[in-house]
Amino acid sequence: MTDKPIRVAVAGAKGRMGREVVKLLVQESDFAFVVGIDARLDGVDVGTTIGLGELGVPFVRDLERALDVYKPDVLVDFTTPAAVRRHVEVALDRGVRPVVGTTGLSEAEVEELARRAQMRGVGGVIAPNFAIGAVLMMKFAQMAAKYLPHVEIIELHHDQKLDAPSGTALKTAEGIQRVRAEFRQGHPDETELLEGARGAYVGGFRIHSVRLPGLVAHQEVLFGGEGQLLTIRHDALSRSCFMPGVALAIRRVMTLDRLVYGLEHLLD
Ligand SMILES: NC(=O)C1=CN([C@@H]2O[C@H](COP(=O)(O)OP(=O)(O)OC[C@H]3O[C@@H](n4cnc5c(N)ncnc54)[C@H](O)[C@@H]3O)[C@@H](O)[C@H]2O)C=CC1
Ligand SMILES: O=C(O)C1=N[C@H](C(=O)O)C[C@H](O)C1
User: 154 C-alpha to center of ligand 1: Å?
Assistant: First the structure.
């Protein structure tokens, strides 16, 4: 007897990441793609809309209706910072497991959603970055910050990105803050001649956000010490790099009974 495929809904299925997720779902035989949700469309076939040919899977604009009618096991969300929190709440309240790549949730919001998941006994995954290389970059940066506490983060993204700094930069900073005693870097008397010149201040160090057409998703974590520099860099050159992590999360969330924040919690 074969296991039943995991029924998956995709919120933001018409977007840059949503399209990649749809491609992934139709390629893997243990996934059944049951409904696409996107604020921009209703009724039309997802496949023909995004150039994959007829899939017989509809786009539904209303999330509640999509979950009630198509009864997915998992909701994958790649939408917007403004929409994601409500989407996770709606999913958890219906016993649908969220797998969330959308960034923009604060640490407090993630904690609140984790409490909700626990109350409902529903598993979930929120990961600001599903690329294994980016997860390693964050881990290596945390290791380095213990010994080289002078650090600055530069994240670089395409110019259609809505949030700054990126979710990855914020998670990198959270990890660094856990191991780095808080002190304010730079000269005590430094002044910004142009507001924002020194970047966003987080726990004593800075995050800088670059937005340019041509970029996909990139980050450098720079460490400075006496007579030496260390740079840890990750480049996402294509959105396909996020898909193995998304697939892992969809499979693993079926066995979770709590909400986890970060792909690292699903890796050996
Ligand atoms: N965790 C990860 O590995 C990654 C996360 N991201 C994040 O994923 C999110 C989406 O990124 P992109 O795909 O580049 O954006 P996008 O703008 O290409 O796609 C977003 C889609 O969501 C739809 N949408 C907006 N509001 C909605 C709502 N209320 N209900 C349903 N659909 C809605 C839009 O119509 C659009 O089709 C961003 O927050 C981005 O930072 C992006 C890449 C990797
Ligand atoms: O918007 C993007 O593109 C990306 N968003 C995520 C983030 O904010 O960190 C992940 C990756 O950097 C791509």
Answer: 22
Q: Where are the domains of the chain?
A: 6-126+240-266, 132-236
* Residue minimizing CA distance to atom 19 of ligand 1: 15
Pick from 242, 184, 231, 213: which is nearest to 21 by CA?
242
Best of 78, 103, 219 for a ligand 2 pocket test (most atoms within 8 Å of beta carbon): 103
CATH placement of domain 6-126+240-266: 3.40.50.720
Ligand 2 within 6 A of 12 CB?
no
Superfamily of domain 132-236: Dihydrodipicolinate Reductase; domain 2 (3.30.360.10)
> Does residue 165 have a cis bond before it (omega within 30 degrees)?
yes
- pLDDT tens digits along 222-232: 999 999 999 99
* Catalytically annotated residues: 157, 161
Q: pLDDT tens digits, residue range 178-200?
A: 999 999 999 999 999 999 999 99
